[in-house]
């Protein structure tokens, strides 16, 4: 089966667990709105790609981890759009959860989704106890503090921020978890894969900083200019667009170089190049030349 289809079906099954006659209908609807339709599903696809590159192990465990990571990512977007943070009215070309259902439901939906991610791990790995502990640790580290997306969001409230550290926590953490989890689900050592996700996550955030300045709301499906309006850390603010694009290219090459020796190493290199080529529109990439 196409991995994209596999991911969507797994997410649908996980989200269905939050519905039913006993769940407040507005909360259930908000959770579904947050997850579907999805974006690029980069993190779960990375998780599955690493599992395939390792060439062994349990595909079902990798899919469970991939789904949990994507649910946490979607939860982080719900919280990111809240009035106390970005106050964004749109996400993925649709009304954000807070715009569609109100900030109170958005807070609760995001909270419920984070819990759902760990429930998904527990249900999917109940017969795989050897993988459960390691994957819960990987995903939990990426979601919380001091290294995860919660810490990344909290950096926005600090008076002085190291942009690279902020990017590694807010965006890189879940990418790193995806690459580690793909290996761990297959019984392979996960630590050697961490740098791949970290570099890709930082590259994606640098690209997002560039798109926030030079992209369009129609293309991105969300408001632009938020970093400048809210005084957020930004690679573009630190170094300008041409150098930010060069940094993006450097991070992608570092990601490629970091792939550990494995049966699918060359295929992984090709996949990284292909995915990274879509981080920026071609008209922006040319501005670094």
Describe the overall structure.
The chain is mainly α and 289 residues long. The protein has a single domain, classed as Farnesyl Diphosphate Synthase, CATH 1.10.600. Helices cover 70% and strands 1% of the residues. It is built from 15 helices and two strands. A two-stranded antiparallel sheet has the order 1-2. The radius of gyration is 18 Å and the shape is globular. The termini are far apart. The relative contact order is 0.12. The model has no long low-confidence stretch (mean pLDDT 92).
Form type = globular
Helix content: 55-70%
Oligomeric state of shown chains: single chain
**Portion in strands:** under 5%
Q: Report the total helices.
A: 15
Write a compact overview of the structure shown.
With 289 residues, this protein is mainly α. It has 15 helices and two strands.
Keywords:
70% helix; mainly alpha; two-stranded antiparallel ribbon; 2 strands; 15 helices; 289 residues; Farnesyl Diphosphate Synthase; globular
List the helices and strands and how they pair.
Layout: H1 3-16, H2 25-35, H3 42-54, H4 59-80, E1 90-91, E2 94-95, H5 97-101, H6 103-124, H7 129-143, H8 149-155, H9 163-185, H10 194-214, H11 217-220, H12 226-230, H13 235-258, H14 265-276, H15 282-285
Antiparallel strand pairs: 1-2
């Amino acid at each position: 089966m196409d991995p994209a289809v596999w991911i969507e079906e797994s997410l649908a099954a996980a989200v269905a667990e939050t519905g039913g006659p006993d769940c407040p209908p507005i909360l259930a609807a908000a959770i579904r709105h947050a997850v579907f339709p999805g974006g690029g599903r980069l993190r779960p696809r990375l998780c599955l790609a690493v599992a395939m590159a390792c060439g062994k192990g349990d595909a079902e465990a990798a899919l469970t981890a991939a789904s949990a990571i994507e649910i946490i990512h979607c939860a982080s977007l719900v919280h990111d759009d809240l009035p106390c943070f970005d106050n964004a009215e749109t996400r993925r070309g649709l009304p954000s959860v807070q715009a569609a259902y109100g900030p109170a439901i958005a807070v609760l939906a995001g909270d419920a989704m984070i819990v759902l991610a760990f429930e998904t791990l527990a249900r999917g790995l109940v017969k795989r106890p050897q993988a459960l502990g390691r994957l819960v640790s990987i995903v939990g580290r990426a979601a919380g503090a001091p290294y995860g997306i919660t810490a990344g969001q909290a950096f926005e409230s600090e008076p002085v921020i190291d942009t690279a550290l902020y990017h590694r926590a807010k965006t890189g953490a879940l990418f790193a978890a995806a690459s580690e989890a793909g290996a761990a689900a297959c019984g392979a050592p996960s630590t050697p894969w961490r740098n791949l996700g970290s570099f890709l996550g930082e590259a994606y955030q640098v690209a997002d900083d560039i798109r926030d300045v030079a992209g369009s709301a129609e293309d991105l499906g969300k408001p632009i200019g938020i970093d400048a309006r809210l005084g957020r850390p930004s690679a573009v603010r630190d170094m300008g667009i041409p150098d930010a694009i060069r940094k993006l290219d450097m991070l992608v090459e570092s990601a490629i170089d970091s792939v550990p020796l494995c049966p699918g190493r060359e295929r992984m290199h090709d996949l990284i190049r292909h995915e990274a080529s879509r981080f920026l529109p071609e008209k922006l990439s040319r501005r670094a030349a």
